[in-house]
Fold these 2 entries.
Entry 1:
Amino acid sequence: MLHGKVLIAQGGGPTAVINQSLVGAVQEARRWKADGVYGAMHGVSGIINEKFVDLAQESDVNLEQVATSPCSALGSTRDKPDLAYCQEIFRVLKTHDIKTFFYIGGNDSSDTLRILVDEGQKVNYGLRCIHIPKTIDNDLMISDHTPGFPSAALFVARAFAGINMDNRALPGVYVGVVMGRHAGFLTAASALARQFDDDGPHLIYLPERNFDLDNFVNDVKSAYHKYGRCIIAVSEGIHNQRGVPISNTISNDVERDAHGNVQLSGTGALADLLTDAIKSSTGIKRVRGDTFGYLQRSFLGCVSKIDQLEAREVGIKAVQFAANAGRDGAITIHRVGDYAVDYRLTELRDVAGKTKLMGDSFIAESGADVTPAFIQYCRPLVGDELPAVARLQAPAVQIEEPLCL
Amino acid sequence: MLHGKVLIAQGGGPTAVINQSLVGAVQEARRWKADGVYGAMHGVSGIINEKFVDLAQESDVNLEQVATSPCSALGSTRDKPDLAYCQEIFRVLKTHDIKTFFYIGGNDSSDTLRILVDEGQKVNYGLRCIHIPKTIDNDLMISDHTPGFPSAALFVARAFAGINMDNRALPGVYVGVVMGRHAGFLTAASALARQFDDDGPHLIYLPERNFDLDNFVNDVKSAYHKYGRCIIAVSEGIHNQRGVPISNTISNDVERDAHGNVQLSGTGALADLLTDAIKSSTGIKRVRGDTFGYLQRSFLGCVSKIDQLEAREVGIKAVQFAANAGRDGAITIHRVGDYAVDYRLTELRDVAGKTKLMGDSFIAESGADVTPAFIQYCRPLVGDELPAVARLQAPAVQIEEPLCL
């Protein structure tokens, strides 16, 4: 059973389905007759500031509407508690008789839970902590994949599918910069956009491999020669062999968040650097670059149904494990078929603060593409929401005596 | 009736529904038993190079699949014929007994048709030319709106609706740069994203008004003070009072297309300039900028149903007018109800090469927003494909003796 009040919060970057997990946890906590169901506004910062909402007073009708709305309905935070912050959290939780805490977030949020659990044991406050996974980066350990990723992958695939058609109509070179600091999963999802053999993206650059600007330009030249056009998917986190992000080589004036991460999104600098390099080195005239930016995690109405279901399920399972398992942990998703999944409670330390990268089996030997194994892994996640496109099949009119030779 | 063979081509930037018009014209031309239905690859350049496909050999099954695929299936071009180019076109058309030409495109494509008609009269080649409208910019004269715009507007509205939720979860300043060189319709469509009173975009900058960086920064400060966050929609075509695009003030190294237009999309420079200005002048830390780029015209699976239907209809109507009206012209859309439209054949000279801008009644007096009249104009175009979102309604937990003051 659930002891004391239940508290739910959302941390880190929003996703298209993060509220499914919130609603799943709220409804399940009410079903288990928790003494109260609070929501903390803006993650852990809402706890220390005692900014709570009484989720027991939400109607199921409104909760269902919230579930299908993108981005953290409780608000989010980038705060990462230290010892003093944690002690403040415990003081507040104790005052409000909160005994179970569900934190929906990525590896930073799971690390926050790990710190809370460690500190909680020191101060002897019996708090049950369960991590509910979400991240478009898909970089949580143990889990086959993470809620939020499939919908973001669907966005990226749809974007490149459209770009591919656009680029066929008006050929040139196109660079699309995709989110992903350390893990290339979301950039790799661009490969799902391919349908015909000559479809783009023709090149895919991931942070799991070192990036070399000269090799890049040569790759582009070759692809352009072969296809008469070239579409390139690039992760924002690409870096040189010394590990320095290419975007940092542009400017020393970098911005860091509370986790020490350099700000990569919200600027078009990397795309501009790459398109400039192509223009100046190849003589190709039509070279365009887009940075997908925040659209890929929050665009309204681009949601994988499987993602919706799984995000709901991890919220529900978190409450069930909290009531039954007698220990803290992180909800993890395990693939047990093609396609079927199972949900388990994993030790927090196995997930907290760690980053899963794309395995070698998912990256082509060239270092500039994915493997069929990755496609097989990723395709079921985006489901039927990635529509097929068609080309004209009409035969060319045979010109027997061309007017212009 | 239709004389000789029919030729169809697509020009200018692709849209999400441009193939609906193509398929509408092909099927209707076959219904009218045209002697042949050719497609020119890559617009007028396909004519002078005799790159034709025999559209009479397309199956209706595949045509329906093509219709729902984004971006010019025949390929497009930025070529703008001069006299010599036109003479070459007539030589080819005559050789292939092509007597009716449908060109699907924007104001540049309609101007190409005007030139063709003028030159055709000089060389006494009886060519029937009908312009089929498309442009995401919505800047064609006479028409109430243009096929392609509603779907692009839907993309922009969905993008800002998501960004609005994202920005509520993690507050800060967000600048989204939207396509539109001279006309602000697409940027203005961002206003459709608003649902709650405090929803963004809080500021909207259009090329119909002069842009002043100092005023801009002050507007942002005020909005940020009022809402604790600020979302801004900016047209890529904003310019200073001397008419110089703000993006040009960044670099003199500008790229021009065949129509003399400066390249605005495919670079993140304008968003970066604006976010830098905000950061350096306001002290606000979290300032992000995205350039929506090519996604807004080609993103797969973001289509207004009304746009689909109308794009199909203008293709069909073009053939009917060609068969019955006995004159050249441009298909125009006229609003005859709320919401209902009528299709007419307008003189080419009234559309060709002209640009419709947003009227004063659509622009707020502040110069940084749209009016309710614009919302009323634009809302029916995107239809039911813009979903509503929901917020939590749970009341705040009343804290009687706050722990932290």
Entry 2:
Amino acid sequence: MSVFERAVVIGLGLVGGSVARDLAAHGVEVLAYDSDPSALAAAVREGVVQQALTADLSGVRGVELIVVAVPVDAAAEVLHLVAPYAGAARLITDVGSTKASIVDAAIGAALGDRFVGSHPMAGDHRSGWAASRSGLFRGACVYLCPAIPSSTSATSLASGFWHDLGALPVVLSAARHDQTLAWTSHLPHMLSAALALALARTGLTRDDLGPGGRDVTRLAGSSPDVWTPIARENATAIETALAAAEQEIAHIRGALMRRDEGDLRQRLVAAQAWFLASERNS
Amino acid sequence: MSVFERAVVIGLGLVGGSVARDLAAHGVEVLAYDSDPSALAAAVREGVVQQALTADLSGVRGVELIVVAVPVDAAAEVLHLVAPYAGAARLITDVGSTKASIVDAAIGAALGDRFVGSHPMAGDHRSGWAASRSGLFRGACVYLCPAIPSSTSATSLASGFWHDLGALPVVLSAARHDQTLAWTSHLPHMLSAALALALARTGLTRDDLGPGGRDVTRLAGSSPDVWTPIARENATAIETALAAAEQEIAHIRGALMRRDEGDLRQRLVAAQAWFLASERNS
């Protein structure tokens, strides 16, 4: 990571913490801020963060890389806060699961030409500094959404940055990203939560589930602080995806009610065919 | 496994094949039948099965343990087929995901006093002999449903058998089993399939998903041959569970449509609380 000597990571949760660890491992001097003083202190104590910043983020001054890793509803405010001090920054990025609003915020903060939104498809249901780890992004797809598509130098820097962390960058527009992720990520999250809620009403616990049921309910353990803003920001697209899933569930239930074994089998065969089409990467 | 010297396993799929491997590893002489001649030949070639039986199952004669490991809609026929030859059997069991119909079939075949239905909560979306492996049941809960609850000697033999395979036996009635599993296993399976079907319509593949989405869709890869009969046998209970899940999904969608962030957060908090209540075993 010779292109950046100093970087700031704002937010040391699962993703931000893991970015900080990887940067430090690459010899980059890492400055950081987290609203939780104990997380920040732990990151300093563990030697990952060289310098803890104060809440006004004026310490960003002079740094070449800024990574915003806070919940998506807090990211815009952070961008506006760092903007006055970001003169030396060559790349400003984030790690949120929605991209349209943060790209708008970057443009609004006059950071557009140096802002490339990032969404690494890594992590799990755990959250916080304690869950962060080095190598989290190895082999993971990371979506890159340039605020200004013509800013090829920023996009190229972002691509190189994630590549150094072992991730596989894919560039697309913020709108396209949010539309796609409603299906590939936000929908599975909401279904997992819905299943957890249905099971909770029966009095059954996750310990009553086998390995399969545990897989399906794993995302229900995700942080509501992270996921409530994601769902709100991408509400329209997620509504559509949820309605589509409800329809598929109702079709299956209909086949069961009619005891239509042929229809039911056909649906399970189609579901398995979809699964097997990408089994090579399973 | 000193209590059984010879055992028959009928059906060498993921679960039956794994039972056969564990029995052989315990020094039990394993006889087996599978409707797929290549699976049966592979099991003999690999030294797991000592003797391949013919389709009339007359070779069951003289054996002390009979394990029926075929799809749940085929199990009743197998029980009727083996009944005339099962005089020496001290324990007859199965491994299906529904228990009421097989218990009825065992009583109908006059095997009730020696039949204890089993359902090991192990395995994954893969199927067939190639997916079977030794140690599959280690640490797994296995439900035991005696056909005749007063047959304590059969229940005790079944409990000891699974205990020797490393599983943790839990005895309950077949009706209670099927009611519970509709929620803990069959519902997650159907939701995973429904999600796969919804994603299939968008043209997105499983390769477009992150680790979370892949977890939620894993069960969609399960065998339709195994799961269609399970769903049909337990249709009424699964219908109820699916309707409950649809309601939870509709509630989440409603909160999104109203942009009611408080309601949405409350639901995600409740889902996470349910998850965290058993995190110790995650």
